[in-house]
Automatic annotation (TrEMBL):
Keyword set includes Transmembrane helix: yes
Iron keyword on record: no
Family from the record: Belongs to the binding-protein-dependent transport system permease family.
GO biological process: transmembrane transport
InterPro entries tied to this protein: MetI-like, MetI-like_sf
Pfam family of the protein (one): BPD_transp_1
Main location: membrane
Keyword annotations of the record: Cell membrane, Membrane, Transmembrane, Transmembrane helix, Transport
Organism from which the protein derives: Cellulomonas hominis
Domain ABC transmembrane type-1: 41-229
UniProt superkingdom: Bacteria
Protein name listed in UniProt: Carbohydrate ABC transporter permease
Length: 244
């Protein structure tokens, strides 16, 4: 992909070689200078970052409630919510779009982000992790007079750093690479994400090198997110545990 993006459109090597002799960066310059690409990148950043923050907050609170709080119907509610995992994502696309259209969410940021916030997999992971935390921690916090919000902020979240880093990385990758929902909910090119925008370039008879250059640029945040997450994994593992 990188080789073709750097190869001049008119370059034909005999014999063929893996790397072109004459590297041409015009495709990357065209991609980085394009207003559409900047807009699509902004949309992808907003879609991914806001979704990560919202999913982590909601999943951690729900996981804490399902793991450590006692209330009527807790188990039935949890397993009913978890049953959403067994429903294929594509089956819910049309009903979700109809609901969002009636609410006026078509071609808007909130319409793009809202349907993905109720993430059953994220709630399940957070619940399983928090369930393994010692009950003595929460009993001690209660004796010290800590309320629910203080307990959640000072005990649950710090101990959940490893799973939050892992989950945040996966959620970011899911949304950054998402194609079908942004394609359905975004009517105008101004609301397209990078995946949808790059796919549309081939229909506009844009040179293949430009399309692949855009794909290479779209991969950069993925590698960056992975690098940041790797650091968070190590820090979280080092800080996790109970000292006597």
């Amino acid at each position: 992909m990188v080789v073709i993006a750097l190869r001049p459109e008119t370059a034909i090597d005999f014999p063929s070689s893996l790397l072109p002799w004459n590297l041409d960066t015009s495709a990357f310059r065209e991609v980085l200078a394009g207003q559409d690409m900047l807009r699509w990148t902004l949309n992808s950043v907003v879609y991914s970052v806001v979704s990560v923050v919202a999913v982590l907050v909601m999943a951690s609170m729900a996981g804490y409630a399902f793991a450590k709080k006692r209330f009527p119907g807790r188990e039935a509610m949890f397993w009913s919510f978890l049953a959403m995992v067994m429903v294929p994502y594509h089956v819910t696309l049309i009903p979700t779009f109809i609901v969002m259209a009636k609410l006026g969410g078509v071609d808007t940021y909130w319409g793009l982000i809202l349907p993905s916030l109720a993430n059953a997999q994220a709630v399940f992971l957070m619940r399983q992790f928090i369930k393994g935390l010692p009950d003595e921690l929460f009993e001690a916090a209660k004796i010290d007079g800590a309320g629910e919000w203080r307990t959640f902020a000072t005990i649950v979240l710090p101990l959940c750093k490893p799973v939050l880093a892992t989950l945040g990385t996966f959620v970011f990758l899911w949304h950054w690479n998402d194609f079908l929902w942004p394609l359905i909910i975004g009517k105008s090119a101004d609301m397209w994400t990078l995946t949808v925008g790059i796919a549309s370039l081939r229909q506009q008879q844009v040179p293949l090198s430009v399309v692949l250059a855009g794909s290479v640029v779209a991969l950069v945040p993925i590698f960056a997110a992975y690098a940041v997450a790797q650091r968070s994994f190590q820090e979280g593992v080092a800080q996790t545990g109970i000292k006597g």
